[in-house]
Amino acid sequence: MKLTKFKSLKFQSYKPGKYEIPNSKKIKKIIKLSANESALGASPKVKTILRKNINTSKYPDYTSKLLRKQISIKFQCDSDKVICGSGSDEIIQMLCQLFLSKGDQVIVPEYSFLMYRIYSSISGAKVIFAKEKNYKISVNNIIKKVNKKTKIVFLANPNNPTGTYLYKNELINLRNKLRKDILLVIDDAYFEYMKDNKYSSGLDTFKNFKNVFILRTFSKIHGLAALRIGWGFGDKKIINALNLIKPPFNVNKIAQLCAIEALKDEKFINKSIQHNLYWCRKIKNKLEEFNIYTNKISANFLLLNFNQCKFSASVIEKKLEKNGIILREMKTYGIYNHLRLTIGNSVENKMFLKSVDKIFKNV
Ligand SMILES: Cc1ncc(COP(=O)(O)O)c(C=O)c1O
Q1: Could you read off the pLDDT of 38-57 as tens digits, one per residue?
Q2: What pLDDT, on the 0 to 100 scale, is given for residue 363?
Q3: Quick one: which atom of ligand 1 is closest to the CA of 159?
Q4: Residue 119 Cα, ligand 1 centroid: separation in angstroms?
Q5: CA distances (Å), 90 to each of 24, 93, 246, 326, in order?
Q6: Ligand 1 atom closest to 225 (CA)
Q7: How much distance in Å is there from the Cα of 214 to the middle of ligand 1?
Q8: pLDDT at 350 exceeding the cut of 90
Q9: 225 CA → ligand 1 middle, Å
């Protein structure tokens, strides 16, 4: 029997941040600082929901109506322009399904979240990389890559894994220079952490634009990564079409309930922001003593550059793993001699700093 032909897919699959260390039986505690997850877990309000006896026998609301309502109140936007997904990841997938066919082109920054290129490739589009400047997205280099086949430009602001970001005026400049029919997708995954007043989130900057689509997630500051929930905001015509594509019960009931509570808990969100800022500053300063330099503080992670350090990134990666601490290697992103560090809770951060100290002082 010869099976019917299926698609020949030629791209690297997504490799998530490492979560285990081989031969680590002797290590008491693994500290995972490799996937930009929340340092402080989830809000106590979310934990109250999780303790409730929730009836799981009925399908969830397939429109996530109450959550969309809460989003519309909090961010002052029309709930009919919001769609929820099983992670913002699923929204990226649906956008690619909706907009892309064989022969189309998508532009992504040279170093960017890997799912943009993966879903674009699955949809048959060609992925074009726009060179960055000192690990920062270059508006000019994106514009240079535009041609008549270009359908979407994806970018995260701040960007993962570089941690750099475009100012509000640079984002507006990009939209102005980009042909009007090209969809600009701005991924606001880490916007809550941003403290620079030259920065403005995609949603705040482009709320009324028909040709800009915004991605948001509950996996980062809200600490709901395991529940898989995110959302997208865009023109009603796009949202209506995405609703035709969307699997009916894509967001589970517990995720919807927890996300509503997470949005309401301003106190917890502020605590997370303060924690992040405090530890980013402390860790950045400490690492500079060892000639390890990082990006300017932005999101809940730092990209560590080892080019001036006496140890290479891979040496430090291995030494930290011996102490049970996992950072994200950057070779899969095409960035060499760097590691990405997610800010952990206070105990984890202290352990990280202690281990770094030990590595340098033992030589
Ligand atoms: C820029 C960016 N967008 C989206 C995601 C994925 O978010 P979600 O968990 O909502 O799928 C990540 C996760 O690392 C990310 O860094």
Answers
A1: 999 999 999 999 999 999 99
A2: 59
A3: 1
A4: 13
A5: 34, 5, 9, 27
A6: 9
A7: 13
A8: yes
A9: 9
Which protein residue has the closest C-alpha to ligand 1 atom 16? 160
Residue 338, SS3?
strand
Task: Give me the sheet containing 212-217, strands edge to edge.
Answer: 82-85, 230-233, 212-217, 183-187, 150-156, 105-109, 126-130
Predicted confidence band of residue 23 (pLDDT cuts 50, 70, 90): confident
Q: How many residues can be counted in the chain?
A: 363
Ligand 1, atom nearest to 229 Cα: 10
Distance 89 CA to ligand 1 centre (A): 6
Smallest CA-to-CA distance from 221 within 136, 343, 114 is with: 343
pLDDT digits (tens, 9 = 90+) for 235-286: 999 999 999 999 999 999 999 999 999 999 999 999 999 999 999 999 999 9
Q: Using one digit for the tens of pLDDT, what is the confidence trace for 199-216?
A: 999 999 999 999 999 999
Cα(233) to ligand 1 centroid in Å equals 15
Domains detected in the chain: 31-42+267-361 (3.90.1150.10), 44-265 (3.40.640.10)
The answer to whether the bond into 109 is cis (omega within 30° of 0) is no
Residue 217 has pLDDT above 70, yes or no: yes
What would the DSSP string read from start to end of 192-255?
A: GG---TT---HHHHHTT-TTEEEEEESSSTT--GGG--EEEE--HHHHHHHHHHS-TT-S-HHH
pTM exceeds 0.70, yes or no: yes
Give the residues surrounding ligand 1 with Cβ less than 6 Å away.
36, 87-89, 113, 156, 160, 187, 189, 217, 219, 225, 230
* pLDDT at 118 > cutoff 70: yes
Nearest ligand 1 atom to alpha carbon 88: 10
Q: Which of 89, 188, 231 to mutate to test the pocket of ligand 1 (most atoms within 8 A of CB)?
A: 89
What's the CA-to-centroid distance between 269 and ligand 1, angstroms? 18
303 contacts 163 by C-beta, under 8 angstroms: yes
Report whether pLDDT(18) > 80: no
